[in-house]
Design brief:
2% strand; globular
């Protein structure tokens, strides 16, 4: 399908136009990805799920960093290497510190401890560990017993803004702008209106709840 569309798009005389109509979202995503590799950018009238956007990936990776009081390296690195991660006061050297932290602590066997517990495994990056721990704390301090949706939302948003902040700009100013940022902000605000009638959620249930709505 992509080859056929590419052939039509490459016709200098532009004698034809084409469109792909399918209920199969996987098929349309594959065709779109292939055309993008060839420099052909097509508009998808079905839109793009928030989960497939940079801010969506950032949003979902952060609450997965700690699971059962254990650091999960894959979502941790996905969040810290995301374009929205600013590092707060660490921002001038944040990217380099994340790479070095990965080499020193997260290569090989996964550490069976939380973020602060890594300080017992080495004498490097203690300031980085403390800063990230404090930035995540509004959310991670809720993990354990089921909590009201309102508390999960407040902690999640605060955590996102803490990590997104830089020396020059606060996290809110970096996150909730542009089409994707405003869309996610509106989703959070809409979810908040149902918090009074939503049962308490566990950590895992909250992540699944948010991911389904973003999708």
């Amino acid at each position: 399908i992509a080859l056929s569309m590419d052939e039509i798009a490459s016709d200098v005389e532009q004698k034809k136009t084409c469109a792909l109509i399918t209920p199969d979202r996987t098929l349309s995503a594959r065709v779109r990805a292939q055309l993008t590799q060839w420099g052909i950018y097509i508009d998808d009238s079905a839109g793009t799920p928030l989960t497939a956007t940079p801010i969506g990936r950032y949003c979902l990776s952060l609450p997965r960093i700690i699971e059962n009081d254990v650091l999960m390296p894959v979502p941790f690195l996905a969040a810290m290497k995301n374009q929205y991660a600013g590092g707060g006061d660490l921002s001038p050297h944040f990217r380099g510190t994340v790479r070095q932290f990965e080499r020193d602590y997260l290569r090989g066997v996964r550490p069976s401890t939380n973020l602060v517990g890594l300080k017992t495994l080495g004498d490097k990056h203690h300031d980085f560990i403390d800063a990230i721990h404090n930035a995540l704390h509004p959310f991670t301090n809720l993990t354990g017993d089921p909590q009201p949706l309102e508390l999960w939302l407040e902690g999640h948003i605060k955590m996102m803004e803490n990590i997104a902040a830089t020396v020059d700009m606060n996290g809110a100013s970096r996150l909730w702008v542009g089409h994707e940022g405003e869309t996610l902000a509106n989703l959070f605000e809409n979810i908040r209106t149902f918090s009074d009638v939503t049962p308490n959620l566990s950590h895992r249930d909250y992540i699944a709840f948010i991911e389904n709505l973003m999708q």
